[in-house]
## 1
Amino acid sequence: MTLDRRSFIKMIGGASTAALAGCAGAPAVSSGAAAELMPKSSGRRVVVVGGGYGGTIAARYVRMLDASIEVVLIERNKEYVSCPFSNYYLGGLIKDLSPLTIGYDKLAANHGIKMVYAEVTGIDPAAKVVTTNSGTLTYDRLILSPGIDFRNEEIEGYTEEASHVMPHAWKAGPQTIALRKQLLDMRDGGNVIISMPLVPYRCPPGPYERTCMIAHYLKQHKPKSKLFLLDANPDVVAKKPLFMKAWNTYYKDIVSYVPAKKVTKVDAATKTLFVEGIEDHKADVVNFIPPQRAGHIAVAAGLVGEDKKWCPVNATTFESTLHKGIHVIGDASIAGAMPKSGYSANSEAKVCATNVVALMNGKETVELSGINVCYSAINDHESISVAGVYKVADGKIIGVPNSGGISPVDFSQTKLEHIYAESWLKNILTEMST
Amino acid sequence: MTMKWSQWALVAGALAIPAMVNAMPPTPAMLSNACAGCHGVHGASAGPSMPSLSNQSKVAIVEAMKKFKSGERPSTVMGRLAKGYSDADFEAMGEFFAKQKIHFTQQTLDAAKVAKGAALQEKNCQRCHLEDGKEGKDDSPVMASQWLPYMQIQMDQYLSGKRKMPEKMAEKVKPLSKEELDALLHFYASVKK
């Protein structure tokens, strides 16, 4: 009998679970001494944590560039739901999240990536060991693409339970479905609030696109309703002239944009938000998007910088400036001028993979050349975009001068961009999942 | 001897350099991999409105990028992106994509249109779009197995005058009806191997 790789991993996973269970009754064994999940199969191993826009691509490209390096991708879920385009679901442009959902089977099979479905609970940078809830893994280099977590402690009254009453929907999946359901259940004439944090946060144009998408739904189905966007920032921070025009043109009777409203306290029982502790705003549906930081594992591993929020990295290799051998990409990293977007994470992952392979082979590293392309839908047939090209200057990632920018404000390209946006999604999800 | 501040800076700079020096300028792969989010891995597009770049001719890519950059060719994001690169970058990308294996797209096509298009292309287009569009003369793009929706968007832009047609192409295209042009595109989309 031959085992395919997946059943082999399953078997190993099962064995280590049994080993852990065996340890449970033995007080001498600390949780830090969990069983090794998978012994190294070759001399060199890269472990990637997080199977989203950054991690899948990093894993794939390390294998594409050097198949002699073993790559293990650790991800807690069997499926991944894309945050980009999840606003389409809130707007009713897609009927469920299936077009945004990918699995890892094909990616793993096509590239010989070893999948471990587990939760990472700790990283020991000195010993080069990752601990998960089902065992430990050693690595030569670690690539972390952990995404974001929320700074709940900064918001008085905000708890896990409050996040179910007032869904953030800022990680796609059950939260997105919960928010959509609340919108469907709301009476015509109801009020909706979107509350967004100060920069930097994941996906700068996201809350503004969401405003368009929810307004698009309300306009069709609940036209007497109102939508208030409470922006903690003093002004629109992404694609400003385009979003302002979209709201004025299509959603004048529904959308109110309210800048400089930083929410500091919430009351989930009454669905109330408190701005700077004074004003209160109550609504039938509240989409409260809390302030953010790097995913908790990056914080726990001591990879966040002085701001205690995001991970400083080398602009060429994305290696942490705080711990050698650990690279951080995507939303969690401080990538200079590159925004916290899915496309940036994709682009950063390739730069990181290229240089991880170079470092492991004692070769010269290659300077970053990066791209960001980001589309936002403003209704069911028009989209707007921002695009940028990035390079390194004086050790920092900068936008290449006189390049990039947003769509023309005359909306002459919005219909075409809506069509291109669909191909963006198709291509980027294909790259992540095959 | 005391050193001036500027001399100190020089020494410090010289010491700092070895850490910086070991990153070489972006390679063709580094430049081109960034395109894959929209154009597919190695330019093999999975999105019907987004052209495959794999196996495209180098000259066609370089010329297209220059025209995007100058604004001569209409675009949405491509003009904005092209402004971030030099002619040497375009050459590097062109070389990278030209080396990739052709990507055979899977698309639903109308067989009657494909047949009609085959005859039309032989009569009208094959002097520039050589070998059933598998090669291109000079900067004529490779058309074989390209996505139909992408080519239809481009043809619309040619016909509306937004995108300038090369003179030789205009001579051939003008006498053809919209149906005939669509049949031609169906043919190119259908070309396999």
## 2
Amino acid sequence: MDASAWPMLLEGAWTTLWISGISIAIGIISGLGIALLRIAKIPVLEQCLVLYISLGRATPLVTLTLFIFLTAPSLGLNMDRSLAGILALSLNTTAFNAEVWRGAFNNFSRDQREAAMACGMTSFTCFRRIMLPQMVITSLPGLVNEMSFLIKGSPSIAVIGIVDLTRVTNRISAVTYEPLPPILAAAVLYMAIIGGLIWLQRIAERHANRLAI
Amino acid sequence: MTNWDIVWDSRDLLWQGFLNTLSLFSVAIALAFLLGCLIVYRLEDPKTRWRLPLRSFIDIMRMLPFLVLVYLLYYGLPSAGIRLEAWWAGLIGLTFYHGAYFAEILRGCRVTLSNGQIEAAYAHGFTPSRMFIRLILPQLMIQARPLIGNQLVYALKDTAFLFIITVKDLTWAANSISATYFVPTEAFVAVIGFYWLISLVMEMAIRYAGRFGHKRGFDHV
């Protein structure tokens, strides 16, 4: 492996990062939406969401990615590789995030909600002004944990031909016939990314503990 | 002939993939759990020289994607002169990766265990190994059961990665059926159903274990 391999590796790392980043953003927001829909307990919808969360948690990412990418054309959708990858990653992480958000909602203190009601807040104002800011803090550790799981699962998008940090090692070793150095380099890059996230999580947890008191 | 008939006709392939996934998963999980227990047991001794290497092993595994570890074992090791078959590379990868996670889960629970009963056990003349097996490990297992259940699901999902290194698992079966007969939707729906089934069974087992723990008075976890 020579110097020309590093730009390729970094490019792969960038692909991993931007696809994971978009999926994380989608997953957090739609996770909150699904959690709220589940809390609203709308008859048929609720059972569908329970089914989705159960399936989403049980389906391996590789299988889901292949499923989406191979099925889309037969449904008449012309799907880009990156789009299929983002869709698979966010479908997976949404199911997990929804549970984190729901846990934060259900554990929210009853006193504060009653106080807000007594002050004449509508339930929407109460949610936006009182609950959401505190829910963000309490669910942050869980959400960051989910983010690192997503990045650890992101190599699955390589099966549909996206050249991410894992697949780039195959490309380099196809030229140099030495697979070990690029894989080790990729491992170091992954550890830097996930180590950074764990570091962020530690900071988030410290803040959460301080604000929770 | 509908697409579902095609999938039904290749049920042997799916069944084989299912058995392969299941055997790989269960053997790896059993070994990983043993490895996790061994690591926690080693860390019991406060003066052990193993502390630093074991802790760094756990941390490295937790920061590495599973597929990268498998790549290291399957594509990387041959340059060091060790050639593994895909199935064995998968088994070893799963064992070490999830062994580290099990160790971390058990260690996290170990920290919350009260010291009094351990001192009492020492006073009664328990040797460290006996105390670990009879006193500490059962409590850790009951307390950590929700986390262990989660980890089992993660391990099941990680087996699908092994399809990339040509292990003939469920995902491989779906992929080859869909490549041969061009019925991707049905093949993958069937396989996702299999994965779902396995994880539902595991969830039920964990809930059953929860009832057992409840009976033994471990309700606060």
